[in-house]
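Hey, sorry to bother you again with one of my protein questions. A protein chain has come my way and I'm curious about its shape. It would help a lot if you went through both lines with me. I owe you a coffee for this, so here goes:
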Amino acid sequence: MELKDRIKYAKRALDGIALGDCFGQSFFVPDEIASERIKKREILNKSWHFTDDTVMAIGIYHILKKYGKIDQDALASIFAKNYALDWHRGYGGTAHSILRSIGEGQNWRDAASEAFDGMGSMGNGGAMRVAPIGAYFADDLDKVLYYARASAEVTHAHMEGIVGAMAVAIASALILNKKLGRYFGEGETFLRDVADQLPESDTKYKILSAVSIKKESNIDFVVSILGNGIKLTAQDTVPFCLWCVAYFYISVEEALWMAVSALGDRDTICAIVGGMVSLFADELPQQWLRYMEQPENSIFLNTENY
């Protein structure tokens, strides 16, 4: 794959993350109101803003564009600097602590490994931002896995958080390869192919449990098995996202409506799904793009900051 194509696909994944993030964030209202809007397919008729999901994905995109790989020290620096530019973006409590510590000069390895009494974070933060890596290295799955892991380790020292990122990166690569005619799996096959690339973990086994859940299944049943991100962990978030992509990848809108219908961690679920399905789409939904905050117009893509 030529460099210009790598950058193009990584940017498409970033735009998909931002779109999903903005869309999902617009549904953070009481569940009964959100459910009624979802039933009516009613989008919010005003500006949609992205969260930390997109801000951190911007950091990954910037590092890929600058270095052609994931430089962990540089990525940690960008995460901390973008956090300092605007920390009111929905960062979780652990992220606040880790990114502040990095910004104050602590080595990212120490900051990440100290989380949760030394266990490290198993959160979904590594997964929410990783689709550009799957897109950039789609022609080399070994590199996808290597750099997805590297990107997650900067903030997530727990294996589950790392595996969540690896899973989404591999899935992103497979979806792009499907678009390019290099991969043909979908549904159950797609889920198995992703799981086969992963280390032994709860997240992997949860993805495999998605294999038996049919496309027509009731959303409440799907959530009861796979989760909806409400626990903010990789294993409670990533399997549902992959199930959405396995069966609804053809349409960005349908995939995101299905994703948000799980409620739970709406912005992150939709950001993860959006990053993946955007890689199969010919274009992103124009009406939705008019409402969303654009990454390229934000302070976070201003390279003068680095």
Q: What stands out?
A: The radius of gyration is 17 Å.
